[in-house]
Every structure is written in structure tokens, then in C-alpha cells.
Design a protein that fits this description.
This protein has 358 residues and is an alpha/beta fold. 24% of the residues lie in helices and 26% in strands. The protein folds into 2 domains: 186 residues, Medium-chain alcohol dehydrogenases, catalytic domain (Quinone Oxidoreductase, Chain A, domain 1, Alpha-Beta Complex); 133 residues, 3-Layer(aba) Sandwich (Rossmann fold), CATH 3.40.50.720. The chain has 12 helices and 17 strands. The mean pLDDT is 95.
Length: 358
Amino acid sequence: MGSKSPETEHPVKALGYAARDTSGVLSPINFSRRETGDEDVRFKVLYCGVCHSDLHSVRNEWHNAKYPMIPGHEIVGVVTEVGSKVKKVKVGDKVGVGCMVGCCHSCDQCGADQEQYCPKMVQTYNDSSMVTYGGYSDHMVANEHFIVTWPKDYPLDGGAPLLCAGITVYSPIRYYGLDKPGMHVGVVGLGGLGHVAVKFLKALGVKVTVISTSPEKKEEAINTFGADSFLVSRDQAQMQSGVGSMDGIIDTVSADHPLVPLIALLKPNGKLVLVGGPTKPYELPAFPLLFGRKMVGGSLIGGIKETQEMIEFAAKHNITAAIELIPIEYINTAMERLAKTDVRYRFVIDIGNTLKAA
């Protein structure tokens, strides 16, 4: 029996933008969403952030692409329908969906509110076990467990990127204990992840040094985002001045780069946490870790409970992403700019006003 087309697989018609092949070029697509189940929430998508992982995915740079692919996992909008058993939200509420829409609910990870590490975690788009379509679309439906309720008066457009970029840095800051006032934490990269990390750390009372290859970002890092200091990673004298000074480092860079100079910045017992996803393996000699009992760790988003906590923390401290709001028709140009790193912070697609049927 042949598989059904994206347009006829489910009963509810939908409109989106999809990549069809490894060129990564996105264009309009008619597809379908499932009916609203008893525990489902359906919402009109108003905004969707453009994550760097969207670029990797549509171009199959992680070698796991399934086409047609509709990206987007920083999705916010307004509820239009709820299932009969839904208790979390009602029609008219503002909500968000991040990087996952399913899990087993029975493993140790799910029991610990860490659904992102569930062996059966279902990604919002391009999932390996089933067909899932993301937020570059006119509406979304998800089980209420994976719905993030939106704080009152918190911006939808500036808050959308926090559903991936925000939780990606917030979770390791908390888990690795880099959230204590007076600590000194480095942030590598001042892009979509990095500038949000700076904002969270400063709200927690942490001293922050931004580490970047771009000297021109110094003024913005300090004057706009509140970093305390700035190191140019290609300047050996500057990097030498920071040796042994940091309790931890959040490394947000997804381009290939060396780790050893960063490890040198750590104090004894310091932690280098990787949250970017370079396509090539890192080179990691043992001796820089042995001399100082330093560690290199990683982190992948956060669970739903922690994501809700993060959004509420962000709203309380007026933390939003610095965004460039774009129409859906601009998405391919935005992807090219992401590939060239010619991007300010986070593209956010104005889905509600610009995604229209032809």
C-alpha cells in the first residue's frame, strides 16, 4: 500500500513552507494536520523563530532529513480549539510549542521531567519515527503536555525564540550550577543563543564575559546586553589575560572551532558546556582537563516543566530575544544569511500576517 501525500494524510488542511531536497530551498506546500484529539490543543501560528538547526536540517547536514520537510520549533500563537480532556489552556489563550511534541511518559527520563532525553522523544519536525511538520505553517496541533502557556503581556514575537534558544542555554546554566550570584561565566558567541545566555546570566547576578571572533560585537555585548567584559578569541594576548578566571563557559557556537583555548580560561573544577552543534568532531586532548579537574559537558534543550519555568523567568525579568521580524517569503534569503553568519540575532517569521494561500 502506497503512502499518502502530505496533503491527504490527515483530515485538516494546512498551509506551510517546505524544503523538498538537500538544496534546502523552501516553498509553499499544502499539507494536513490530524484532527484535534481529546488531549490536543490546536492553535493558529502567529510567529515562528528560525533556528540554526533549521538550516542544518533542511540541507541534510546532519544526514537525517526526510522530505518534504516543514521546519520550525519556536512556535507561538493563539488557541483555536481544545480537546474534551484538555485542562491546561482554553480557546483564545496564547501558547507555544518548542522542540518536541511526544515522549513515552513512562521511562526514568520522563519521570524526571526530562522528556528531551526520552528514547522515544518525538521531534516537532523531521522526527525519525513518524512524520512531523513544524511551525513554518498556518496552524499547529499538539498534545497539551507539550504546550507551553504564555505569560500575560509577554511578547509573542520576541519570546518565540526562547522555546529553543532560551531553554538551550537556561537548562545548562541551571543544571551545571552556573547560576550563583558572583560567579564568572563565559559565553562563546553572541548569536541567537549567546545573547540570550548573557541576558539570563545577568538576571541571575552572574559576571559575564563574551568570547567572540568578532571585535565589532564588543560594544553591543557590553552596552546592549549587559556583559561585563569581552574577549576576542583570535587575540592571543586577550585570551591569555583571561586564563584561569572563569567558573564555567556556555559555548553556543555551531561553527567548527578549537576547545583547548576555552578550557584554558576555566578555573580548576570549571565546566565547559557545549550547546552548539558543529558538523565536525572536536579535538579534545586529555591534559588540559587533567590539570585542573576540568570537565566538558553538553546539554540539549530542557523538559517541558523547565521550559515553562524558563518562559516565566524571562517574562519576570523582561528577557526577550533580539529579533529581526521577516515575512515568510524572505525565508530563503534568511537561510542564506544564516549560512554566512550574516545575521544579527534571531530571525522570527511573521506567520500570521504573511503566510497566505496563493
